[in-house]
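Worked example 2:
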Amino acid sequence: MLKNRGVNISTSNQIEKISDGFQKQFGSAPDIIVRCPGRVNLIGEHTDYNDGFALPIALPFETMIAASSSEDNHMQLISEGFGSAHFNLADNPMSTSGWGRYVHGVGSLLMGSHSGLLGWNGYISTSIPMGANLSSSAALEIAAGMVFKHLGKLEITLPEIALTGQRVENEFIGVRSGIMDQIACALSQSGKALLLDCSTLQNSMISIPKDIAVVVMDTGTRRELKLSEYNQRRESCESAALELGIPSLRNASIEDIENLTNQTLQQRARHVVSENQRVLDVVKAFSIGDSLTAGRLFSESHLSLRNDYNVSGPALDKIVEVALDAPGCFGARMTGGGFAGSAVALVTKGEVAHFCDFVSKNFECPQNQPAFAPTRIYPVDACAGVSVI
């Protein structure tokens, strides 16, 4: 979506760079600078649109927007490396192509509930790897929502901005995604994982055991956003819930699944029900410092996503296999929507360097799924959600 910068630029340098970029483009200093991180989901995949549980953390990659109010409904946006987007908030967001549609969609939905909302000029930069299943689009939506909130003096909460971002994905992008990405980008806290109940949006902060490092493994493969396959998974879950006579698979048990007449629906439902329990079991394992159990649950999650939900891919399977053979690895799994992108591992802190070196040397993308970006293996700390700088 937007240009990928390095991950180790200090916040002060980022602020100076984006402020200078805005001033060069628009001739004055910005009124506001907003930063919003990406996220990696530790566990709880494809559960959010089933009213289930998820356990993400915010990443030290972030999208930043420098902005100033305009005098009308017009929006002028410049992104580092990806050109510009110009549109009128009164127009249908479907008339805006590319990354600009995400911002247009947020503004259009907010305008519908907040009369008199004006546009703004914005300069956008990001360090979130694109297409890596690390929520670059959700970060842009939440950052844009915060700009609208503060420049327009809107009475709107962070969960409401997150729900607006989800509506953008559903209504204007065509992805029938859940709420986890946006909530993680908006509400995460530094040093904590966020336990999210997607049926109520209730959340709590969970400490990660001190001996565990979270390592993101970006295979360099990029999903050609498989909208139809992603949406088919949700439709299968809805069909399973309908057949069982329940509101969502959050209400199903493993025993209930045996009553489903279709094998594919059984598989999809089995993943969702078992994954919800795995989230709760990982939280319990974290609370008592049981890293071995947490790691085992990670690996079980990957097998479930591969075998029952069928959303893994050759590169994701391979990098998980390599990770599990690496020194210090408690467990590993694909993360995000699937098909390509990134995996995540739990690694003992004393072995992080050896782990990263081992995976880097021993992982090679399968020939039937070539990489479009370099493979990157790196430990991450849990970071804070969106903020105004």
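The chain has eleven helices and twelve strands. Confidence is low (pLDDT under 50) at residues 1-10.
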